[in-house]
Structures are given as C-alpha cells and as structure tokens.
Amino acid sequence: MRRSFSERAACIEDLKQLARRRIPKFAYEYLVNGCNSNCAVNSNRQALDALHLFPRYLTDCPESSLQCELMGQTYAAPFGVAPVGLSGLIWPGASASQARVAHQANIPFVLSSLASISIEQAAELAQENFWFQFYPPTVKEISTDLMARAWNSGCRHLVVTIDVPSAGYRPADIRNGLSVPPKISARNIWQSICRPAWSLATVRHGIPQFASMQPYIPADADLGNVAHYIRNTLKKVVDMSTLASIRKQWQGKLIVKGILTAEDAKRAIAAEADGLIISNHGGRQLDAAVPSLQALKSIRSSISRDTALMVDGGVESGVDIARYLACGADAVFAGRAFMYGVAGLGNDGADYTAALLRRELQQVMEQLRCPTIADLPRFLK
Ligand SMILES: Cc1cc2nc3c(=O)[nH]c(=O)nc-3n(C[C@H](O)[C@H](O)[C@H](O)COP(=O)(O)O)c2cc1C
Q1: Mutational test site, ligand 1, from 114, 210, 281, max ligand atoms within 8 Å of CB
Q2: Which of its termini does the chain have fewer beta carbons within 10 Å around, N or C?
Q3: What would the pLDDT profile of 315-340 be if each residue is shown by its tens digit?
Q4: pLDDT tens digits along 178-204
C-alpha cells in the first residue's frame, strides 16, 4: 500500500529530500542554491534558528486563530506563496497547482513575471488571492500592457521586485548550463533520463515557457534568443522614477519586494507603496546580504503600522513563520518550501505543503498560548 503524504514527508526537509530524488540535478540545484558561496542562504537559516520564543503556560488563552488581515483582505493564514521564476523547470505545472491551492486555502499566491503560467491562467486559478510580481520592462508599451492584463484579469496586488540590479552570480547554474543562452548538454539530458516522473511530466506540459511574456517574444526566437530577449527587455535597475510611474498607472495595492534597509523602506513608502516585502531574494542576489530576520527587526521599528510589512527568506516550517511574525511581520512568504512540495510529491504536494505549514504554525501558537497572530510579538520575551 502507498504510504500517505505525511508518512513520506512529515516536514519541509523531508519534502526537500524527496524533491532531490525526483527532479534532475540541474533543476534541484537551480531551486536550492543561493548565489556565490551560499552565505546568504545560510545566514537566513542561522538568524531564524537563533530566535527564541517564550511561552506563557500559566495564562488563559482562547483557541488560537491563524486568520490574517492584510491590506484590507482577510486570509485564512498569515503566509503565502512567493514568486518563483522558471517554475515549470522545477516541476511542470507547479505554479498552476500552487495558484489553485492559494484559492482553496485562502492564502496569497504571487505569480512571478517569469513563471511558466500566464497572468490570465494564474488569475483564473488563484482568483481573489492572485498577486502579480512585476519586473518592469524597459519598453513602456509592454510595461503598460502587463499591468493592464493583470488588472483586467482581476489582480489587485502588484509586487514590484527591486533587488535584481544585476543577475545573481550562481556557480551551480553556470556549471549546469542554466545561463544566458542556456546550454542543453549530454549531462542535462542524462540527468533528465534518470528522473522519469519529471521527464514524463515535462513531456506532457511541454518545454517550460515565460508564459506571461510570450506575447512580446518574437515568434521565431529559439531558446537562446528567448533568454537574451527576456534579459534585455526587463529593467535591471528599478529606481524611484520607475516606482513613481508604476504608482501612477496601478490603481490597486502596490507592494515593493526586496527591501533590506530602513532607508529603502522609507523611500518605497514615499513612492506610496501600500506594502513592503523584506527579502534578500532567498539569498540569490547578494551573498553578503543581511538576513531577512535582522532587516525585519530594524525596519519594523522605523516605519508606521500603516504600511503592510511582509517578509520572506528561509522559511522551512511553521516555527519559522511564527518567528517572523513575532518580529513584527504582518505576513510571511515561502518560495522554496512550496516548490519542494510539488517537486517531491507532484501537483498534490502544493495542497500538502500549505496544510503542513498551517498545522505546524497552529501547533506553535497553541504551545505558546498565543490567541492570534497579532499577539505573537508578545512572545519574544
Ligand atoms: C528558484 C527561484 C526563483 C525565483 N524567482 C523569483 C522571481 O522570478 N521574482 C522574484 O521576485 N523573486 C524570485 N525568487 C525569490 C522568491 O520570491 C523569494 O524571495 C525567496 O524564494 C524566499 O526565500 P525561500 O525560498 O527561502 O522561501 C525566486 C526564488 C527561487 C528559489
């Protein structure tokens, strides 16, 4: 008899190990690594591990609730799916399953500009929980069109990522040929053959595409040309004037992702952002980056409660989510954890990952004797 998901993967680390055995090495290394020497990935982890919470056993506490109010919307839990580009390379159909689950579980789903499903598909699946992550294009018409497509399909949350002024230096991807232009080597083909579930799913779904960008890519572009086109079409530096022009056009909630300092937080607020995501891009851009947790602590004390403060980086359990919330985050996002779920268990793994994080967070809240997520900061000392 086939073992249940919880017997096969009782925690995110188990999902990660399943993913390692189920997808080709080049895809796994694309997902798991940060940049350079992986210092920023490790320091996100170390900062979270070092944060302790203090239970209050001898206090009265009603049943703990995970409900979360964020920028005027009520979610069932204070965590969501972070944007992940080239999601179809990691697991074919990953973003579609995650978007569907976000709607069912009532949590936010952020679609990457570079994901393998389009704005329209994500909107249909995630519905009111669809957020769009925007790498502003250099061509004004494309920029305007992408925002209009997001808005017209019902998206009301635009997440502008500011932390990619240069491409992250990722040695594993360079070794594996995941560069611009990509190289299909005998080694990659062999790694794919060794992972039949991934290969079959890829054959069923087709080669992963940058689905939202597809209408703008020249029809005759081959794999190498597409990669060059994408790199040249998306702005590297997002400056204050880019933010100002996006703010002018976007009527919904504007969220700036990639904030690591109080100064940038204040600049984004001056540009009329409704929310900030404190993030070092999962350690994939600057290997010497401050851990998200440390940045969160200093930024929380520098800005008012009017701006929604969200965070991501290194979430591997409900305990990690509680740690971020205790340090003042209003909500938390996870990138790799959700990807390990689908890569390890197939598309049903998206639902399982959300349920697992929920269950772990609920357990921490009950253990602390904490009634609501807004109360978590009281358990820091
Ligand atoms: C494989 C991969 C691809 C990513 N692609 C994007 C992207 O297209 N846009 C973006 O804003 N962030 C991207 N990120 C960063 C995530 O949104 C998020 O900041 C990060 O994954 C959080 O860390 P965690 O994976 O440890 O949870 C990516 C992360 C990974 C792991």
Answers
A1: 281
A2: N
A3: 999 999 999 999 999 999 999 999 99
A4: 876 677 889 999 999 999 999 999 999
> Global pTM?
0.97
CB of 168 closer than 6 A to ligand 1? no
Nearest CA residue ID for atom 12, ligand 1: 83
Domains of the chain as residue ranges with CATH: 5-379 (3.20.20.70)
Using CB atoms within 10 A of its CB, is residue 293 exposed (0-12), middle (13-18) or buried (19+)? buried
Task: Please state, in angstroms and rounded to a whole number, the distance separating the CA atoms of residues 235 and 243.
Answer: 12
Q: Between the CA of residue 380 and those of 59, 186, 304, 371, 374, what are the distances in Å?
A: 16, 52, 20, 15, 13
Determine the residue type at 99: A
Beta strands in the chain (DSSP E): 68-70, 73-75, 79-81, 109-111, 130-134, 157-161, 253-259, 275-278, 308-312, 331-334
